[in-house]
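idk why but the lab printer keeps eating my pages so im just putting this in chat instead. protein + protoporphyrin IX containing FE:
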Amino acid sequence: MTAHSVEYIRYRIPEQQSAEFLAAYTRAAAQLAAAPQCVDYELARCEEDFEHFILRITWTSTEDHLEGFRKSELFAGFLAEIRPYTGTIEEMRHYKPTTVRGTGASVATLYAWAGGTEAFARLAEVFYDKVLKDDLLAPVFAALAPEHAEHVALWFGEVFGGPSVCPETQGGPATWSPSSPRGGAPMVRNITEAQRRRWVNLIQDAADEAGLPTDAEFRSAFLAYVEWGTRLAVHFSGPDAKPPAEQPAPRWTWGAAPPHRP
Ligand code: HEM
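predcted complex ->
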């Protein structure tokens, strides 16, 4: 659970002062942008009643706000800009986010964008065909279980926003992970960098052949996960790695590139 705290400051600004108020906050915002305690901030104006403004600031924690930012030089600069308006504050309090949060469906999941379960099934099938013919990887997968490709397809689907499908718990948090498929002892030992890189190359070849979308945004997000996952796999297969703690499947989403809108 995050320690983040959300501060809401509600202002009532007479119409004739609103331009000045916005200009002052535009300058003051530079101090928030520079504050290591500040996660993000947004000043919104009421559509129904123009005199109402709400500033929302997410802090790394309430304590970081009060003991860190408030005692810093940045706060002095911030306050200097907005001091004329402090008398118009109607509420200024910290709120703790609850578990009721989420995103809507305005942006497709990577799973849906890729083409859903069938797309990842095709991907895994083509991929393991290649793996078994590959000089570096075939030896690692010598004892491949028949259901392996299907499991990996389900895993990819879940990571990219598809249904939760861990077969052991039927919908509970998945405990498979690349390095430790069932959350227990790692199944692969001492994966080399050359093997990892081959895995990365082959999955991209497989993505092409399986007809996964080729747009820049999808592929950059896809590759980011593959880089992350394979590097973890190498780490946990190493001689000194402690077995990873059981964790739900990571949820991967669009990267910094602007997502396509279907
Ligand atoms: C993003 C990267 C990766 C993902 C998502 C992934 C996913 C998985 C999953 C879900 C399993 C469990 C399959 C099952 O229980 O049937 C598994 C097992 C396995 N993985 Fe990975 N993996 C990744 C990287 C790697 C790499 C880089 C290697 C080695 C070069 C590797 C080698 C293996 C092996 C040998 C098994 C056990 C195979 C068996 O079922 O006998 N994996 N992986």
